[in-house]
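Structure tokens please, single chain.
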Amino acid sequence: METRLMVLWLMLCVAVVIGHKQTEQAAERDGGTEAEKTRESTAGVSKTDDVSLGEENNEKEDEEIKDLSSEASGVNKETEDEENDVDNSSAVEIEEIGEAGLEIRTRLVVGLENGWARGRVEEEQLLASAHNFNYNIEVNEDSEVPSCDENGDNFLMIFLPRGEGVVQSTAAAVVKRLRDARVNIILPHHHLHALAGWSQPLQRAARHAGVTSLAQLAQELHQNDHLRRQFRAMLDTHSRVFHVLDDVSNMDHEGLHLNVTEGRYELRVKGHTPPIILALPTSSHARALLLALSDYLTGAHHPDHGCVSCITPDNEIHMKMPGLVVVAVGVRGPHPFLNTTLQSLLQHGLHPHHTHFYLYNQVEQYRGEVEAFVQHLREGDSHVTLLEAGEETQDEGAMRNKILQECIRLGCHWFINIDSYAFLNNEIPALLLHLGHPVLAPVLRVQRGIESSFWRDIDGINSSPTYSWDHAALMNNQPSARGYWHASCIRGVYVIHRDILERLNMPYTHAHSVPKTHAHPDTDLAFCSALREAGVPMVATTAVPNIGILTNNTHHQVNTQNLLTLESNPVLWNYIYLTPTWREIITGAFSKVMRPCDEVYQYPTFTPVFAEDLLSMAYRIDQWSKGTSLDSRKDTGLEEVPTVSQWISQLRLDRLLENLFTEVLKHQQLISFPFSLPDKVIYSLVARFRLGEIAGLPQHHDSSSITFHFYLTPSHHYQGGELEFPMQKCRLKPEVGDVLVFPGRLTHPKILHNVTDGSLHKMIVHIDTEIPNYQGK
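Here you go.
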């Protein structure tokens, strides 16, 4: 062991001596005097930052860098570089520092081409990614060419002209790419004035070109092919060190894909990993793609577990909220479940004495619902201002700007926007403030579609927000998707800190917001455009589960009944119309199924709201039969067991019944009778029983394999009306929303006893065995 250490020590000593000798020879060739050298050594930027490449380095890269010790003289003898003016020095000082790895003297300098603002998302991501690999970023206003340090060492220099980029590899990887390319300096092939290379060749190239800044030197090297050859510089056409995202860059296309290695993400370009990723500044799409990629590459997300540090909701959030909060609630168009979404906002979790609500309604038919909601808020001691849909407020953008200005005038600390088509779970608005991001939106899914409350990309053609390659993955509620994600646009629900509001000027009517493909101004797009131009990061969070949903209002009309939106809004439909008990049963809690009689099963399935809405439709259509044996609706014209009823087809609820059969009735059939054959609906109606009409039914059995009775009237609203199964010696009076499931034929004859007071309503469905391709003989 001691012998090996002695050999390595001798090799390093020889390398250092040769390196210093080359430096002296180079100085003599350049003809510089000692005084000139002194001036040059003090003309650069601040001192070198040592970068320790510890356990994060790959062992393979460590071995390759160790191999450089045998080339520390840097003298490359390639045939094509035999000209006298070619700079062949590429010395790098390497010190072995035991188990900690290798130390390469490295400086990463960022210029101020686009300014530098701590807290701006691009700078934060660059800092975070560089920190992962132990780089220290030096911000240099003049980006001067570095001078030699006091020991005359040749160190690695990386220069980025602006605070936009992400680092995804160690300095050792940059050294390896330079060595593989057999060059001293490498530059992005796009016209970005960035570079990476050894400090001494950079100094000589700058003197030769007569420039003093790294940005100027990068520009000269881009434009001057002879200068590149002379100082062994090259354009990085193969993304060895730099990969520049542009208008056509897309994940899983153009050779770009995310790879997982050692529990972290890295971007692969045609199979290899460039150490530095940049974006073309003129491409909105490229910059949005860089932001989205940076969420993975900065170490903020683990491939299996999601965000590195997720929050824990606080049950007493509203007691900790300082200052005034302004909440804008907008009813901007027709959509289902308006009352439900508005009611969800009553559990906002904000302190009522520190919260001002501003409501604006642009749908005249919803005036009553909005006024009722305002009254509920005021009963909770909240300050509420209702903006009527008059001439002054017809312009949606101007109205929303007015509320922002009012927030600033009142000295608010936070502004919250909530569109009425958002359904939020309890205390979500207060929780969003508690998270503390300057501009934050919860990730809410629009039902029956990929749409949501955020976008992460920018369309390269019309510059409008669009879905990124990872949008669907972020919406799948998997642990790996939990966290905070940068967005190109947010909508529906978001919170903004006052400091951000003061940087915006009429954002909801921003001039450059409407793509040519849009016929009308979109205030959400205008708002997002204003934020992007102001350099304000927008963040969407999936760190909190069960935040809520957005209703699907596609093609929705004011007079469309909520009951008819099961297909377009299944999550909210189920929440409103199906009981929690049924949701438990469907997930395996079969003990909650009641069996009051032999082979008669009782399921608490529907809420009272379902019964109310269904009967409301029935009485609005009002095509009740006469309750006689003559029934023109039947093919035979006769009804053996007459009822006062309306068929489901008369109510135009055939599609709803199909969905209910698939989503509810089939499950109840299989739970009750697991060995039954596949069935189909053969008969369905809503029946009414009361004195003066048909008050009850004599003993009879149905022509069905299985019968379903949906009870639509609370049991205390009528007297009598019990359902009896004589053979089972059982008599029932179920509650509203309950569904009885029983065999329809001879085994279960039944009697409906007369209703003596009030009215009983039922929805009755018969299903029968479906035998496909049966051929009798």
